């Protein structure tokens, strides 16, 4: 089954370029296009894509709000959102990640990265590396809680090892790196990550990283 992709960008030329890149891949199928967030919502309902390639700054409804409505609480649909941005340090990207995006990619990324990102997101993983997410969160630390707030009750549902894994996810480590750090198998790490996401009601590693910051488990700017 090909991965169904919806292209959302207010620039037709960019959409055409993305379509040409994606349709050259046998496992990817562009099922539709939208020029703004409102059209994106309509197309998601009508076409049921697996991945939405979402621009952030668009007329009528921006990509952040569209992402929130596509992936927010109570939405059990299959669509994952991969945000496209012109700048790698953009506060709107942080808001999109909070809203439920599975990651982000620069618009000038090589075609091979775009294709790989879509495959990764469709598979339920985060894109790009959580370390980039962390850099964004560090950059916009002023938008996040200070960490002095009370720790959410949901953190108490995690085991000590799951808390360790969550901290390492927030630091940007891959499953393989976490496995090496904790001296366990990569399969065990995947199991722990799955338990963390399920217990905290999170969609993917990106939301887990955001949660770790917002809960005060990891402090913006703190090393390690």
Automatic annotation (TrEMBL):
List residues of the Response regulatory domain. 4-122
Residues forming the HTH luxR-type domain are 151-216
Location of 4-aspartylphosphate modifications: 55
Any one GO molecular function term:
DNA binding
* Pfam name, any one: Response_reg
Cell wall biogenesis/degradation among the record's keywords?
A: no
Which Gene Ontology terms describe the biological processes this protein takes part in?
phosphorelay signal transduction system; regulation of DNA-templated transcription
Q: What are the protein's UniProt keywords?
A: DNA-binding, Phosphoprotein, Transcription, Transcription regulation
Does the keyword tRNA processing belong to this entry?
no
PANTHER family of this UniProt entry? Answer: TRANSCRIPTIONAL REGULATORY PROTEIN NARL-RELATED, TWO-COMPONENT RESPONSE REGULATOR
Protein name per Swiss-Prot or TrEMBL: LuxR family transcriptional regulator
Q: What is the lineage of its organism?
A: Bacteria, Bacillati, Actinomycetota, Actinomycetes, Kitasatosporales
């Amino acid at each position: 089954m090909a991965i169904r992709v919806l292209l959302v960008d207010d620039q037709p030329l960019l959409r055409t370029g993305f379509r040409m890149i994606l349709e050259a891949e046998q496992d990817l199928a562009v099922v539709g296009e939208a020029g703004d967030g409102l059209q994106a919502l309509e197309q998601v309902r009508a076409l049921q894509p697996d991945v939405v390639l979402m621009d952030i700054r668009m007329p009528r409804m921006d990509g952040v709000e569209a992402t929130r409505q596509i992936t927010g609480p109570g939405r059990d649909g299959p669509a994952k959102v991969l945000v496209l941005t012109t700048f790698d340090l953009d506060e709107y990207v942080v808001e999109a990640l909070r809203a439920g995006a599975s990651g982000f990619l620069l618009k000038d990324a090589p075609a091979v990265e775009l294709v790989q990102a879509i495959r990764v997101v469709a598979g339920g993983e985060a894109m790009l590396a959580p370390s980039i997410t962390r850099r964004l969160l560090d950059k916009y630390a002023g938008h996040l809680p200070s960490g002095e707030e009370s720790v959410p009750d949901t953190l108490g549902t995690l085991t000590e090892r799951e808390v360790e894994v969550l901290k390492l996810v927030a630091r940007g480590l891959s499953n393989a790196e976490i496995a090496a750090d904790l001296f366990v198998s990569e399969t065990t790490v995947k199991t722990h990550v799955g338990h963390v996401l399920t217990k905290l009601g999170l969609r993917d590693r990106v939301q887990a990283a955001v949660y770790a910051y917002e809960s005060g488990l990891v402090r913006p700017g703190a090393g390690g």
